[in-house]
## 1
Amino acid sequence: MQFSEKYEYPAGFDQIWEMYADPEFHAQRLSAAQLEEATVNAHLDGDDLTVELRGQVSPEAIPAQVSRFVKGRLSLSLTETWHRTGSEATGRMTVDISGAPVKIGAELALTSPAAALTERAMTGDLKVSIPLLGPRLEKEAMRFIPMLVNAELSAAEAWLSSH
């Protein structure tokens, strides 16, 4: 199932790029996902940034209709790779959930249409590979994307107010 999200940060590109390179921002961003044993790594190498988020999915976070297809604990791995060119960056996000037939991938973009404004755009695909039920479960999973976007915006607000 295709998805597309676009949202704004009330800060210039350089400050948002600094925020994206800060593991503390991503740890706060991740808090809405209800992960246990979560780890965050952010590595900046020149104009390239790699962010890796890993953790165990809390059993309470698994919808009942999905839990019967899950064997044991689920491990989530989210990786974002970014390349900066001036006041813009493009990237790719992949989410793998071991133990669940779910794959998420998205193209990412950060642009700065104004001095104190940065936009993030995300266009991707969420796929649940369960015969007959896949499309219904994809629709159910799509409900979590706005929740995660809101968590990211809240984490950004907190980070920006303290930096």
## 2
Amino acid sequence: SINYLIEASYADVDSNPVLLPYYNSASPSSPYSGQGNNGLTQPTARKGTVVLTAKAGVPAATGSQTTPVPDFGNVGLYVVTVAYGQTQITAGNISQYAAAPFISLVNMGQVQTQAGTAFQAGGTAPAYTLAPSPAITAYASGQRFRVAFGAAGTTGSNTLNISGLGAVSLKQYGPDGTLVPAVIPGPMLSDVEYNGTVAIVLDPVVTGFSSLQSLTAVAASNALTVTLPPGAQAYRSATLANGATTSLSNAAALTLTIPTGATLGMGNGLQGQIAVLELYAGGTPQLAVCNAAGVVDLSETGLVSTTAIGAGSTSSSTIYSTTAVTNSPYRLVGYITLTEATAGTYASQPTNVISAGGIAGLAPAVMLKGLMSNFSATGNSQSISASTNTAIICNTKASDDLGEYSTSTGRFTATNTGTYIFAGNVHGTSVTNAQRILMLYVNGVERYRLQEIFSASGNAGIAGSSIPIQLNAGDYVQMYYFYGSTDTLNGATFSGWRIK
């Protein structure tokens, strides 16, 4: 085959010759015919013409032939490809020269179909590609295309490679006006514009401020990793001075790892609940966690200060974050419910991970649990020495939300400062006529008598409850029994709960 270049050159041509009259100074009434009375005609029009030339290339095997370059002063217009032995040229043999200086006129149909800008994305999500026609030769600010995405992407990893020029990140504007990773939830249409750095999805799915955000918690290597995907929050005033809110987006997912040893005040083998917070943290949001049953205000009306989390994070009344934060607004974003055989060793996956939007969205029972602790235990077959204050060991727990009661020592140890009430009873087998006293010890010292009787009427039981008792975190309470004779208990109960 051989390629012929149809090239064009411009030329000026004088035309329309006319015998023109000229002024005759010797005889003004008799003009000259032609210049100097030479009788010759002169052109009266100058026309611009285009000279077309077919410039032959070098014959070569079909597909390997090349198109000649335009001659000096010429511009290439079309290429005519002719196969060996061909006797007729058809429209299929003619194509536009790549550098032809034609300006394509856009008709209304092309405008309506966005023929030059609307294209189907290719590639494999999240690495999308786009092949516009004609292809762009370089990225430039303001380039905009109508892109049909055919598959869901991965938020934070979505890219677009236009005309093979290299992948650029796909972003979208968050509710606060900052650029955040674009969300491609599935097949969708959107204008996408290059801003000189990234490709911006201008018709994103709605990702406004929400009281509920997706939350995940995964146990691995005896640690628990909590993840919050990119999103936006509106925080209360950082100064508490007015009702103004501050908008903030986290462009990347937020993560926090609760390491091995960090019990957050939860007990062995007991169900616990972890509250997950998103901190404003001076404009760089981060996650925080705390024991939902501890004394922590989760109303979002105040500011919180946190402690950097580590293996020693064992307090139920402390909020922990990756790095310590002081006086920060926060949002409550979820709860994690879990039960671990050994508190602080996250060997099992959570039984429930839920999103939340502040304490107002919680059930009353959950709010009550966040303010109170309680326990109940039973025991039997304990020997009692005569005339001795004996610690009663109730060695079977019925409940203990915060893991505060020890079945080996009979001690209830307060996790949080507050006001508590306790109740107990014992039932003996001795019928000896003697004094019986049921007591409460606080930190190893007798503080309250629940009941005192003098009875020998067969098997004797004694029971009672306390007045409200103020305890500090770390104080421990035990139930003691005094009997003026030896005895063997065949039943006992000890319980308590925090009332404020």
